Amino acid sequence: MDLTSFITSVLTSFVIFVALVLLFTWLSRRPGNAPVYYPNLLLRGLDPWAGRGRGTRSPVGWLRDAISASEPDVVAAGGVDAAVYLVFLSSVLSILVYSGIVLLPVLLPVAATGGALSTIPIPTNKSAQSAQNFSSIERLGMGNVPEKSMRLWAFLLSVYWVSFVTYFVLWKSYKHVSNLRATARSAPDVKPEEFAVLVRDIPRPSPDETIKDSVDSYFRALHPNTFYRSMVVTDHTKADKIYQEIEGHKQKIARAEVVYANSKTESNTEGTRPTHRTGFLGLIGTKVDTIEYCSEQIKELLPKLEAEQKTTLHEKQQRAAIVVFNSRSAAAFASQTLHAQVYDKWTVMEAPEPRQIIWSNLPRKLYDRQIRQCVVYGIVFLIVVFYIVPLTAIAAVTTLENLEAKLPFLKPVVEQPAIKTVLEAYLPQIALIVFLALLPTLLMFLSKQEGIPSQGHAVRAASGKYFYFIVFNVFLCYTLGSTLFKSLTTIINHPAEIVNMLAKSLPGSATFFLTFVALKFLVGYGLELSRLVPLIIFHLKRKYLCKTEEEVRAAWAPVDLGYNTRIPNDMLIATVVLCYSVIAPLIIPFGVAYFALGWLIARNQILRVYVPSYESYGRMWPHMHTRIIAALMVYQTTMIGFISLKKFAYASVLVPLLPASIIFAYVCHMRFYPAFAKTPLEVVVRHDLKETPNMEAIYTAYIPPCLKPDKLEDLDAFEDAQSRATSRVPSI
Amino acid sequence: MDLTSFITSVLTSFVIFVALVLLFTWLSRRPGNAPVYYPNLLLRGLDPWAGRGRGTRSPVGWLRDAISASEPDVVAAGGVDAAVYLVFLSSVLSILVYSGIVLLPVLLPVAATGGALSTIPIPTNKSAQSAQNFSSIERLGMGNVPEKSMRLWAFLLSVYWVSFVTYFVLWKSYKHVSNLRATARSAPDVKPEEFAVLVRDIPRPSPDETIKDSVDSYFRALHPNTFYRSMVVTDHTKADKIYQEIEGHKQKIARAEVVYANSKTESNTEGTRPTHRTGFLGLIGTKVDTIEYCSEQIKELLPKLEAEQKTTLHEKQQRAAIVVFNSRSAAAFASQTLHAQVYDKWTVMEAPEPRQIIWSNLPRKLYDRQIRQCVVYGIVFLIVVFYIVPLTAIAAVTTLENLEAKLPFLKPVVEQPAIKTVLEAYLPQIALIVFLALLPTLLMFLSKQEGIPSQGHAVRAASGKYFYFIVFNVFLCYTLGSTLFKSLTTIINHPAEIVNMLAKSLPGSATFFLTFVALKFLVGYGLELSRLVPLIIFHLKRKYLCKTEEEVRAAWAPVDLGYNTRIPNDMLIATVVLCYSVIAPLIIPFGVAYFALGWLIARNQILRVYVPSYESYGRMWPHMHTRIIAALMVYQTTMIGFISLKKFAYASVLVPLLPASIIFAYVCHMRFYPAFAKTPLEVVVRHDLKETPNMEAIYTAYIPPCLKPDKLEDLDAFEDAQSRATSRVPSI
């Protein structure tokens, strides 16, 4: 890519970005759009244009707000997970800024005066201008330094500088996140998950007792003073179906009533009672009065639900349970202590938040979980390495001829010459795009299949898988290009070869990645900030579909940050920028811009837009930390190879960096990780509760909505339904 | 080795064995030898010739007793560790018996009629008899089966049979040992270690409080209802030295009094008061009256000890402590729960038994421990792989010429021609023998340097190191011989080569290992059973040195089983027999004899001789289990190589065995290991104590003897001495 096209591309992206930011400034000031640009504030009952958000009517108000918000504000708005995500962005930003401060002033002059590229003969058929361009970007990189030059010392020491900056920043960040997590976890407000543990792999009870009975007697024996109540997980799909049906009918009634009320105009005081057809999608079948029909349906369904609830509670008990204790420290003790003599029975772990439980995974057995995990890892490995194979196969099958044969009704459309050309050219690409768009969903599905008990954990697992996919496919495959697969046998026989191959291919792709980073942050962040798609969808829905207040609220109901795709994408940029930081230092300002802008916009979105759907208290951090170190090690390895290629005898001076990184990762993991995997006792008792919490509320939080008794007093009845022992021991 | 010399060697060993057993039968019946042959019984206050041991006067009484003793008897006599060692022996025995039942009748005929060896031309200069011998042992092994023969299927399926027998036996044994451990741990008698936890990495306290104060306030805050008392570890070397001095003087007085009383004969009614010299070894210096002198010394030392105790308790506090809780389950909870937010502070683990604490290791910091472990592992790796190098160097330095130059007084002795020849020939061998004799001690020392807190753990660590040493050096090095080191570069570049090399070298060493196993069990067990060396030492000591009852008791004080060398040696035999089981099935009867006899003799020694010096409740088992699987995998790997060498196309049918072994090891580890590393709650509460235990006694058990207060009531004063806070919160 020559200089002109590079500048053109960056400039175009920049213009789009500015346009989008202006659009955002204009749109976000219109009150009608508030649910799109301030849903988080609205849900927390705050006025978007009052209080500390008062500056938002000014064009740069969002900027000022994003910068001035404190960390507790962020935690209040988006939870600890959002705050940790911001720490991640600012950590990478600090690494790049500290690196850039030294690398840019030192390496650029050293590289620019290296002069290796000017001695390369210009290939034939190239104009003088091309040669000029060739040197203007690439002359500022390491490619311009001659072999065996003593200038290489500057690059070599830069690798050390970047590595130590990374260690320093990561250590401070891990400490910060650890404290953030501890502070949030020791907050005095009562969270149900702090009083509960999840019990899995419950052994088969004796025939004269239910699972509930065996759980109760087991835990009462082991925790005589602290056991409160237990709730056995049930297979409540059927009850849930009936419950959802009732809720659907209730919504329909609400909607019909609004429609009916609106139809009572002056000319038609009676109004028209809304009707619908009972058949498929309301399109066929007999026409009925909606309100009457639905009310009748509900009346019919309610006893059904009640019967189903009873059956579910008593007969569909699964071999997993939530056990509630009467104090935080009792739950912490229980979740960390080995209960049974063999590990595949009565496995105990911290209970997930009620809202993020994946019920269907709870009863999975230990060995089942292990096997599922192995199978899923195998599938993901195949997807990461060979995803292009099935795509090619699909592309081959879905040629136009095949499509026409299978779906003859498409023929008249497809036979149009213009459409045909386009389709023939783009069908494989479309297949690829569809696949890439579906990939995060697929990975999320696979992660859930592992038997993970909570949403947050599944997101972390999916995020890891996606990270491997994009780093392998975008970074490695683009850099190495076709040579990767051609010489796969070479790599297997001589694993060290890959370092040389990477080192040889890296400089050629520098400009591509410069453009890639620029495009990513300018257009990507522009779209993110302006929220054009949710805006359009919201307005369309509100205009044509929504009748009741509730429906309008559902139309703008904000989603969460989507860590499972967001973090891997950021990590990809971090990996790319780190790897090129010394080879082509010019990439550092782009990286700084990416993470600085990312930080700003993420703060804005967290404070105003996204609403967290779960809270894991920053458990994502150890993963991010490990992956930054992994990126650093890829960087260190390629640099060893790259400097060796320059026939520089001291390249081996870099080798100690690799064990240093491993030791650093190990020490961090040893020191900080346990507090992320378990609850430290220190944190539990920091603000011990003065008064006893409302234990009924804690217990009820874990009852799925479709099984929830109407009144709190019915809790005993709920427990009795699960138990066979009629004379229940009273639980205090 | 030809047949004659093989038979000669085995027969000689057998004769020695029979002679030793007869000697044992004769010697053990003499009452004067009871302290040598029945020390365990004596210590437990049982009469060796009464009760259930009544048959011991008959020559085979010991055999009947060893067989008829039940497992609880073994646990009562030698603890769970001894019982687990017997389970290990019987497990290997079962594996070999089950294997032999199938392999011997099937493989011997198949091999004998293979006829591959008879087609090999007899080398020149060999008589017909040699050729005859060649076939008689080796014709019964796999070497006699021709290449590509379908007979190899029998050998291949045998490998499967042996593997599955091993899985089956190991699974049952692990289950058995796990139950054994659980039963022993849930016994109702009060053990101090069940109420205590060991706290390490205590952070530096604030200047106005001692470490003791900070421990107390920290644990009282986290465990308000269950904390009993804490004892900070102190550096009591100096106090201990004074204490030992006093004890020494007390012993001297006792001895002198006996000597004095004996000297009062009829002719000399006054007696002679015993005297000694105060200088080096009692040889030089002024002559003093022993009783008077020692009493005076004690009088002088007692106030010194008291002062030193005070200083030690208050000023030599280390950053580790033993914290005692008032219930078993509280201690179990505390030992398994993460306490501090960062893992390198307040690390908590189960307390070791008081008698096996290695005090000097307790205050070592987490990072210190990690670094020490790395360094020790590095040293052990070097010792295992390159131990021959320093030995050669030492041998070169300690030539006779050098010795003469350094130690001229040796010259007249060394210059004798006969002595000179012997020394010159044997000096390197002597160096090797001395090194091998010192090796277990060296490995034990190294293991203790890792910062391990308990004796039992150090023994396990040393045992592992010794296992690697002997398997690598005896098995691999003998089998591969010089080819191993010559082709070390080949192995590094092509790791798969080692399989072929092993496979090629194995059959040649079969006869050697047959003899090795026979020698090992016949002579080794003979010596073990007859206890000739302890017998001689005991009689010599009693006759010439011992004066008081106490000294006689010290002379026969039995040691423990010495797991750190015993188990690796047994494992070596197990590895050898497993690896040759299919190649030369004749080794199986030898292996069966080794483990059967070993089991019998170990039972006899455990029931009557050895006294355990610590109890780890079978924590050695997981290590033995893993190492048997490792031996199995070495066996499977060599068999794949060996059958491939026979150009048998189906050799790859064996490959699935390797992942099967790994999965088996993983499942066992996952299912059973946690109950060995931690205390399961189930086990703790199985027999909950009816009455409160004597908490003072539990606490006192952890006070080192040199610091122990004279009366139990002084415990509060002992605690106060460690604390700076004068108004101590009363502990209930």
UniProtKB/TrEMBL annotation, chains A, B:
Residues 5-172 form the CSC1/OSCA1-like N-terminal transmembrane domain. It is found in: Membrane. It comes from Zea mays (Maize). The chain crosses the membrane at residues 6-27, 83-108, 152-171, 374-397, 426-446, 466-485, 505-527, 572-602, 648-668. GO terms for cellular component: plasma membrane. PANTHER family: CSC1-LIKE PROTEIN ERD4, PROBABLE MEMBRANE PROTEIN DUF221-RELATED. The gene is LOC100136879. Residues 372-642 form the CSC1/OSCA1-like 7TM region domain. Pfam families: PHM7_cyt, RSN1_7TM, RSN1_TM. It comes from the Eukaryota. GO terms for molecular function: calcium-activated cation channel activity. Belongs to the CSC1 (TC 1.A.17) family. Keywords: Ion channel, Ion transport, Membrane, Transmembrane, Transmembrane helix, Transport. This is CSC1-like protein ERD4. Its main location: membrane. It is a multi-pass membrane protein. Residues 195-361 form the CSC1/OSCA1-like cytosolic domain. InterPro entries: Csc1-like (IPR045122), CSC1/OSCA1-like_7TM (IPR003864), CSC1/OSCA1-like_cyt (IPR027815), CSC1/OSCA1-like_N (IPR032880).
